[in-house]
Write a structure and sequence with these properties.
heterodimer, A: mainly beta, 12-stranded parallel beta sheet, 12 strands, B: alpha+beta, Multidrug-efflux Transporter Regulator, Chain: A, Domain 2, 3-stranded antiparallel beta sheet, 46% helix, globular
């Protein structure tokens, strides 16, 4: 494919576009991309569906998006809901809303507020996340992770009572990292160097090297200090 | 072939690296995905690694990361890319491949020392030698193997692949398959050997260094 003649894809309203390689993809409305698509900038507003793999240098999503394959985006800004049926890899994700991935998720930086549901391993350099609902990951491996509750208000309590999935909490099988700071998490095993277990946590076993700080209300099954 | 495994916890203790480093290297693809072997133990799911491979790899990463960035390192570590050539004399001295195999499958120039062996050629010799010394293939079959590898292995262009050697009613057959591959045979077929060439390359490399 000749690189100097890469075109743009622009679509407004309701429609279906072919896949392919583009410089700029701009979708507004209820749009579907029928095959694998690759773009330097992928800017989407509305309800988007990609039937295939999506590769983008920069992804800016406002609205909902469903990708039936894998997503690769160097930098991603998601306001809304992104569902990736397979794995997700990239460098940076600013999330305001919900992310679900059917496979593994590899990122250098994950920041934001909302909910994430990762069926596989969430492997990230740094995670700074404020929970707004029930988040989960089979496994989390990272350098630093700091997860706490997001903003709360009067209406939240009502929502939580109506729909339990609005309870901000994190469920994971294993969390491993250098600096681990958790709140409202229920985890099987936490392994790390400097570990902080905050309020509302329920941890099966904690293994740490340098230090462990824990909130009086946190429940920890076993604690083990490893030398190193 | 049962290989020795090391748990993640023991690995970190032994090498002194942290969880963060391990995950970072995995993200940068310095450690291949298929080395992460998940097994259930009494404490739940645990991750294990092939001990010899991972220790050699971590050693390499730790030694090289002073001079190179992680992204540059990733290029260096791709399984078959080794910029290294060996002469006939060195090869015999270091006893990596038995002399008989070397003698039989070298060009006259290589034998006289005028031409050196590339890593790929060494890999072919190494694989043949492994199978031969394990008594799984005969010398004639070894010829066939070399031919198979020479003509088809370069097509994989560094992607992981495996070598299969099967026999049915005394007739032997070699095959190369991209891994991970799921292959099933009719009941008359006996799979004599199944080797991951990526792993063989890794083993060979650890012997060379």
């Amino acid at each position: 494919m000749a690189n100097d003649t890469i075109g743009d894809l622009k679509m407004d309203g309701i429609g279906t576009a072919a896949g392919g390689v583009y410089r700029l993809v701009n979708l507004n409305g209820v749009c579907k991309v029928a095959a694998d698509v690759e773009a330097q900038v992928f800017d989407a507003d509305g309800q988007i569906r990609v039937n295939g793999h999506l590769t983008a240098g920069e992804l800016d999503l406002d609205g909902t998006m469903r990708v039936s394959g894998t997503l690769h985006a160097e930098r991603a800004f998601v306001d809304g809901m992104a569902t990736i049926e397979q794995s997700y890899a990239g460098q940076q994700l600013q999330l305001n809303g919900m992310l679900s991935a059917g496979g593994d998720c590899e990122l250098d930086l994950l920041e934001g507020e909302g909910v994430f549901k990762i069926r596989g391993l969430l492997n990230a350099g740094s995670i700074k996340f404020r929970l707004q609902g029930r988040s989960s990951a089979r496994e989390i491996g990272c350098e630093t992770i700091r997860v706490g509750r997001g903003r709360t208000g009067v209406w939240r309590a009502l929502w939580q009572w109506v729909l339990p999935s609005f309870t901000p909490e994190l469920k994971a099988g294993v969390i491993e990292g250098d600096d681990v700071e958790l709140e409202y998490a229920s985890v099987g095993i936490v392994r790390g160097d400097r570990v902080t277990i905050g309020r509302g946590c329920d941890i099966g076993r904690v293994e740490y090297r340098t230090g462990l700080r824990k909130h009086p209300t946190a429940r920890i099954g076993e604690e083990a200090k490893l030398n190193g | 072939m049962e290989r020795e495994l090391i748990s993640k916890k023991d690995l970190l203790e032994l090498t002194g690296i942290s969880y963060g480093q391990l995950y970072r290297w995995k993200r940068k693809q310095l450690i291949p995905e298929d080395w992460f072997i998940r097994k259930s133990t009494f404490t739940g799911q645990e991750t294990f690694f092939p001990k010899d491979l991972i220790l050699a790899r971590i050693d390499r990463i730790v030694n090289m990361k002073e001079d190179l960035s992680l992204d540059e390192l990733a290029g260096k570590l791709s399984p078959y890319q080794v910029d290294l050539v060996l002469s006939n004399r060195e090869l015999n001295e270091r006893n990596i491949v038995s002399e008989m195999v070397v003698h039989r499958f070298s060009t006259p120039e290589q034998r006289s020392g005028q031409e050196a062996y590339s890593f790929q050629q060494l890999l072919y010799l190494f694989v043949s030698d492994q199978l031969l010394s394990a008594g799984e293939i005969s010398l004639e079959e070894c010829e066939l193997l070399m031919e198979t590898l020479r003509s088809h292995f370069p097509r994989y262009e560094g992607r992981p692949c495996e070598l299969l050697f099967t026999r049915k009613m005394g007739v032997s057959m070699f095959a190369l398959a991209a891994s991970p591959a799921e292959l099933y045979f009719d009941p008359g077929v006996k799979v004599v050997a199944r080797l991951q060439l990526t792993e063989m390359a890794e083993q060979l490399r650890s012997k060379l260094h």
